[in-house]
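Note to self: user wants both folds in one dump. Writing first protein now.
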Amino acid sequence: MGLYTIEALTAVIITVLIDLAITKSGAIKTLNFWITWLIVALFQIPVDGWLTKLSSPIVIYNPHDFSGIRFPFSIPIEDFAYGFALTLLTITIWLRLKPISHRR
């Protein structure tokens, strides 16, 4: 397992812990989060696919640093883990900073 893979998995684990244990926002348990993440992922596919296309890549990954699994097209799956972590962290912080009177 490469460093990029370890970092991506660590980012997901830490972000889930922040959501559930530290801020206790529970964003990951909501349908709104999953719909938001799906939208982010759907936009990530064409952009990341273009950046990482094997025929003429703009971003080149060291094969020793990631899992080597690319889906769909030529996108390293670790990129989706980072997108997931960033989306969850943003929503978690947003919910935590919302005034108490507006929280559920």
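First done. Writing the second protein, which came from a different request thread.
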Amino acid sequence: MELTELFEIFMIVSFGVSWPLTVIKAYRSRTTKGTSLPFLLLIFTGYIWGIIGKLLAPSFKWYVLFFYVFNTVMVGANLILYMRNYKLDKLSAAS
């Protein structure tokens, strides 16, 4: 394993720990306040591009791809919760 791969794994694992915590916070808060939809969409798109890059790389490593996919799923969960929380915010404002 090259040193650059090791640092990439550290970065991806750090994000991998952070995203589930954000999912939990979004689920519990039941609001979109403090959440940026453009930010989530940009990160989601970035992970998709990262996955494509990993799949096209000559030295493809499955274990690194796993973390990219996991993080993409977590950001996707945040996007779904954003939509739920947006509806809850609208209902709250209407009442």
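Dump finished. Worth passing along: The chain has a mean pLDDT of 93.
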